[in-house]
Amino acid sequence: MSPLEIGYSAVGGLVLLIYLGMPIGIAMLGVSFVGVAMIRNDAVALNMLGAVGNDSLREYLFAVVPLFVLMGLLVTVSNVGKDTFDVFQRMMRNVTAGLGIATVFANAVFASITGISIASATVFSRVAVPEMTRHGYTKRFATGVVAGSSVLGMLIPPSLLMIVYAVLAEQSVGRMFLAGVGPGLLLSVVFAVTILILARRSKSFVFETTDDAEAYADLSPGDFIRKCIPILSLMTVVLGGLYGGFLNPTEAGAAGAAGALVIALLRRSLPKRTLWNLMVETGQITVSVLFLILAATFFSRMLALSGVPRELAGLFLDTSIGPYGFLIAYLLLIIVLGCLIDSISIMLIVLPIALPVAEAAGFDLIWFGVLTVVAVELGLLTPPFGLSVYTIKSAIEDPDLSVGDIFRGTLPFVAAMLVALAILVIFPPIATWLARL
């Protein structure tokens, strides 16, 4: 077999192993090792595996992963998400479908201090959904809003997916974070507009009853300020330090984790057992992410050795398909894969093949990364995988609420994300202007 045939066979073998249920990281390591051994020999494969382990994980940058994960978990247990929702509920109570819009913007703010979409889905399914249903919103709409807006957790920095993309594409994590701000705000506005349109054009979808006689919890000026302080403090420390140039991403993660720890301790939400569990969970998430990055790096080097990326670049760029034909096919592939496997796995499988093609096409890799993250996040809302949907279902534990109802509630937000994705394709500066400053 030629190296090119071995490369294509490795891709096919990876897909088959994943379909059979083998863990993504182990499958990638296995096919990569066999591929390099067939192209060269066993000794080269062993040496490359050792080099990948040394090169891909020794960087100081990787300390950012456990720090931001720990910050997100600490924020989740200290009820900052509930405070955020209470603040926006107070601000939006007189707006049509105001609780839905409040949920979107509360999720956007919460995303800026967590970076994990599933954390947002868990918190707001327990905070926002009961409040919305109490005020006459349908459960389908309430859960759809929470699921839809939870995707902001992986777009608005700090974002775990942005970190993974930056590592794989060899881009600056700080610039990737900056590039997520504009698209995150765009998506929040598109979601809010979608809610307003639904409230006016499809009232039966949004409201169980239009006669809302339930009282809103009132916040005194003192309570309002007290709930704002932790949120604003963390945003100032993390985002202010990062965007102001005072902190690099790893230092910003450390400052954010320390700030979140102080908030949790002051609120007495960290008994010893809880803190230990959070540390263990942080370690588990970090190790799994770093192992997947190692496997994806080995897979990428095997593909480069086989010549598959060069062949695909010629196929897409030297024919009538062209660069934007490749981009559309790439985004469609990611959206389809999102129906089947999780976000990080999609990026680890697809990016080693797609990045060389995108670079040959002359695409800005920062912009390409933002498009990738938005398309990947669509998979959180689409059946049958729809991780955010299943997270909400397990968090609410309502026997009258089916998974199908939640998926139907997310449909308008899937459409809104497609619109936002199209806008980002047409207007790249939305993602790149801040990162280029």
Q: What key attributes describe this structure?
A:
437 residues, globular, membrane
Description:
The protein is mainly α. The protein has one domain (3-432). The chain is 77% helix and 0% strand. The protein is built from 21 helices and no strands. The chain has helices at 3-19, 24-39, 42-57, 64-77, 80-92, 98-111, 117-134, 139-150, 160-169, 173-201, 203-206, 221-243, 249-266, 272-306, 308-317, 322-338, 343-360, 365-378, 387-396, 403-426, 429-432. Helix 2 runs parallel beside helix 14. The chain is globular, with a radius of gyration of 22 Å. The protein starts with a helix and ends in a 5-residue tail after the last helix. 50% of the residues are buried.
Q: What's the short version?
A:
This protein is an all-alpha fold. The protein has one domain.
Topology overview:
Elements: H1 3-19, H2 24-39, H3 42-57, H4 64-77, H5 80-92, H6 98-111, H7 117-134, H8 139-150, H9 160-169, H10 173-201, H11 203-206, H12 221-243, H13 249-266, H14 272-306, H15 308-317, H16 322-338, H17 343-360, H18 365-378, H19 387-396, H20 403-426, H21 429-432
Helix pairs in contact: 1-2, 1-14, 2-3, 2-14, 3-14, 4-13, 4-14, 5-6, 5-12, 6-7, 6-8, 6-10, 7-8, 7-19, 8-20, 9-10, 9-17, 9-18, 10-18, 10-20, 12-13, 14-17, 15-17, 16-17, 16-18, 17-18, 18-20, 19-20
Membrane topology: Multi-pass membrane protein
Organism: Roseivivax halodurans JCM 10272
GO molecular function, one term: transmembrane transporter activity
